[in-house]
Amino acid sequence: MRASFRVILIPIILFFAALSPVLAQTPQLSLTLIGQAAGHYVVPAGQTTQLKMEILNAAPSDVYLSEGNAYLDPGLNGTWELIHSESLGNFHLGYLQSAIWTFELAMPAMIQAVNVTSGTPQVSLLIKIIYLTATGIQQVEQNDFPLSVPGASIQQQNNSIWLEAVGVVALIGIGGAAYVMLKKKRQAR
């Protein structure tokens, strides 16, 4: 009976040993933009807008906020550019404490968007918060947020490649059909 108990106990211990690092990797900080109407953030192109972010320490250990960075992908091609960086002065946050980071976001005048929501071009803003854990290890928490950008230009999708491909296929088809018809005429003679 003792051997069967060990057979059951060993997998349980191994399971919880493997599970504990996974549980320990929960996000430390929760980042939320606050203000403006129901999560609808309007940042006009070519203007500076004040945004507020709540930074909540959701894990049971203390943190020290080092730096806040805002990134934007102006051409929406996957190239994020740093548009705002600010020291947060090693601000101390205990468990379930939060801080409000207020920052000025200067939206570039020449910005493109590939999508339009409710008639307004929309882009994505990436916020990264760099912080130190109580043990002195530097960590980064990030989140992206949709922004409505009045005045942004709409990026037109390039349909010419599809038109060229359809044209080439059509020419090959017409050429093939003409070749078959000529071959049949020659055989008929």
Question: What is this entry, summarized?
Answer:
The chain is α+β, with helices and mostly antiparallel strands and 189 residues long. It is built from two helices and ten strands, in the order H-E-E-E-E-E-E-E-E-E-E-H. The protein has one domain (28-160): Immunoglobulins (Immunoglobulin-like, Sandwich).
Topology record:
Layout: H1 2-24, E1 29-34, E2 48-57, E3 63-72, E4 81-93, E5 98-106, E6 112-113, E7 115-117, E8 120-133, E9 138-148, E10 153-154, H2 160-188
Parallel strand pairs: 6-10
Antiparallel strand pairs: 1-2, 2-5, 3-4, 3-8, 7-8, 8-9
Q: Any key phrases for this structure?
A:
189 residues; alpha+beta; 5-stranded antiparallel β-sheet; 3-stranded antiparallel β-sheet; 28% helix
CATH topology tier name: Immunoglobulin-like
End-to-end Cα distance: 97 Å
Radius of gyration equals 29 Å
Number of strands: 10
Number of H- or I-type helical stretches: 2
Report the order of strands and helices.
HEEEEEEEEEEH
Strand content range: 35-45%
Look at the structure and name the CATH superfamily. Answer: Immunoglobulins
Coarse shape: elongated
The portion of residues assigned to helices is 25-40%
The CATH class assignment is Mainly Beta
- Uncertain segments are 19-25
Largest sheet: 5 strands, antiparallel
* Architecture per CATH nomenclature, i.e. the level-2 architecture: Sandwich
Given helix and strand content, the structural type is: alpha+beta
pLDDT averaged over residues:
80
The total number of structural domains is 1
